[in-house]
Amino acid sequence: NGIIVSTELKSSVIMYLTLIVIGDSCVGRTWLIHRFVHKEDALFSEMPTTGNEYDFVRIKGCDRNTYKLGIWESSYFHDSSGVLLLFDITNEETFHNAIGKWKTHISSHAPADVPIILVGTKCDLNEWRVISQDRIH
Predict the structure, then answer these.
(1) Which of 18, 24, 44, 52 lies 20 to 30 Å from 37 when distance is taken between CA atoms?
(2) What is the mean pLDDT of each run of 10 residues along the chain (137 residues)?
(3) Residues near 43 by Cβ (< 8 Å), separated by ≥ 6?
(4) Where are the beta strands (DSSP E) in the chain?
(5) How far is CA 25 from CA 80, 85, 112, 118, in A?
(6) Count of other CB atoms within 10 angstroms of residue 54
(7) Angle at 49 between CA 116 and CA 89, to 5 degrees
(8) Helices (H) and strands (E) in the chain — how many of each?
(9) pTM, whole model, 2 decimals?
């Protein structure tokens, strides 16, 4: 039921998938990737990432097959299997940019049928939330 994430799966990979993580500077792209792949919190940094960051993980799907997932912090969408579009729930501008300029950028550069998941970050700062859950839905 669901996806099992592991860096230790030994079975042969049947498919390579590419996940693009995109959004404004300082929304938590690098932290999210690090947390997902390494199962630990990344060190906090106020310095934005420059260039294209990436990591790889093997996942076992509901079909019990093993996939190699490349997770890229990039705006290069060629052959992407999916996009995580991030915004900071404590920053109104990042939400507007996500549903505006970033969504337009994805539509212009990614495959037409690429799945896009809108992700609100920094939920641990809920007391400073400015984007309500109702607005996201």
Answers:
(1) 24
(2) 51 80 91 80 54 74 85 82 95 97 93 93 94 88
(3) none
(4) 4-6, 13-23, 53-60, 66-73, 82-88, 116-121
(5) 21, 12, 25, 16
(6) 16
(7) 50
(8) 4, 6
(9) 0.78
